[in-house]
Structure formats: structure tokens, C-alpha cells
Amino acid sequence: MRSKERTDIYTRVTNEIVAAIEAGAGSWTMPWHHDGSATSRPINAGTGKAYRGSNILSLWIAAQAAGYSSGRWASYRQWQALGAQVRKGEQATTIVFWKVNDRGEDADDRDSEQEGRGRARMFARGYSVFNEAQVEGYAPPTIDLLSDDARMRNADIFWGNLGIECRHGGNEAYYIPSEDRVQMPPFAQFREPAAYYGTLFHEGLHATGAASRCDRDLSGRFGSDRYAAEEAIADLGAALVMADLGIAHHPRPDHAAYIASWLRVLKADARAIFTLASKAQAAADWMHTQQPEQLSVAA
């Protein structure tokens, strides 16, 4: 793919995400906030694999805008192979497909370009997908739903397997890098369980930045773009984990302080969201690798 075509894809995806952030800024609703339903876990209907990184953001935005109730997506040909047909006039959603050009291998779960001697070079191309709601003749598989109590138990087990110290007390939630621990208000201070777990995993995502985990730069001062970027990584990463656990991830009023920085960073660099999404996905992946076995989630 030509450089201009790649740039167009980066710009198109970034513009969609910027527009979604601007639209929700008044209520602090970001494109990665969700209700924990099936649309929160976008999967490919043909392969059964989950979409990753920035593609999840793109599919979340499209599902919210169109009011889709399904998280299943696939290309035109994949739907045909499943015996379904995309209805005439339906608009596709563009996601990014990553390609390795030195070996000719596809790598659709990468969210960053790697260039340089001795390393694989990644390049992006646009890929069109359609939601289950846009097709006819498809019979989705039956999936058992988990109760709310089961989801909360799964969240507790998931957190316990991370090995991140957490103390409860006070009225504020934060991660202390020098002590490598999370501080949380008591559970009873939260208006609902989802608010508690969303905050817990947000702070836990900050903890994945420690050198012994994902080794991100946590030195940014409050008010800086680096600090705001880390907040975006933590909240997006928490959204990914909460989606996997089938728990809603709600807006946080304190993020009003970061929205301007997020928009400034994304508008200045069309590739910034891919970097942020890649780091958030890596952090969520780290959390999943700490689990002894796959936890069940609601569909």
C-alpha cells in the first residue's frame, strides 16, 4: 500500500475517534465506555477471534452510532461463507489490517508499525467489515448468559490473580509507583459494583506500567500530555478488561481534565491513537496472561 493510502487510513480512523470524543466530552463519555453487553466484545463471526487494539475502538464507535446490539462482525466474503448476505445499501465499517511485508505474513493483531534494519516492517491497509445486524440469513450461536453475581465473582478472581497489592481506605483511588500498590476507597462508597471495578481496573492498568510488567514511562507530571496519555491508556485498557468480564465501564468525571490533552495529541499525530491502543492492549494482555485459565464471560 502506498504511503498516502496508509496515511488516509490513519487519518480516517483518528478522525472518527476524535469526533466521538468531542461528541461525548460534555458528559465525559469516551468511545471506550460501554455497558458490558455483547457489543462490548467485538469478535469476528467467521473466525471467532476477538478484534484488538484500535479496531475495537472503531467497532465500538460504529456499533454505538448505528445502535447495533451484536458484537459480531465479518467481511462481505466471510458473511457469504457463513451462508449470510449483507443487505444492499449497508455501509461498511473500516478497520485496520496489519501486514508484514518482509515475509508476506498477515498480522491483524498488531497496532504499531515497526521499521528498521533487522526488524519486521508493518504496514496498514483498510479492511471493510459489517455487523451481524447488517446481514440476512445468519443464525447466531446460542450462548449462556452469566448472572451479575457471577460476573463480579469473576472480576474478583481475575484481580486476585494479578498479584497487584491493593489497600482500601480513604476517599480517593490511585496507584503509587514507588510502593507499587493501588489505593481504593471501600466498596461501599461506590454507587454500584461496576463503578468499583471500573476504578479498580483503571488503577490496576496504571500498575501494569511498572518495569516488572509492561514497563511504560510513568514519569509524566499532572497536566502534561504524557500524563494524559497514560490516563488514556489506563482507561482504555480497563475498558478492554471490563468488556472481557462483561461489566459496564462508565465515564469518570475526573477525566474532564484530560479531554483537551487527548484531543490535542490525536489531532497532532494521526498515529497516536494506534500507539495508545497498542499499549492499552498490551496491558490488558498482560492481565490475561496472569490468569490460570480462561474465565467465562457473558455474551
UniProtKB/TrEMBL annotation:
Tell me where in this chain the Polyvalent protein metallopeptidase domain is found: 154-278
The organism's superkingdom is given as: Bacteria
Kindly give the Pfam families that the UniProt entry links to this protein.
ArdcN, MPTase-PolyVal
Q: Which residues cross the membrane?
A: none
Specify the N-terminal domain's residue ranges.
8-130
One GO molecular function term of this record is: single-stranded DNA binding
Check the record and name the InterPro entries matching this protein: Antirestriction_ArdC (IPR017113), ArdC_N (IPR013610), MPTase-PolyVal (IPR041459)
What is the protein name stated in its UniProt record? Answer: DUF1738 domain-containing protein
This protein's species is Novosphingobium subterraneum
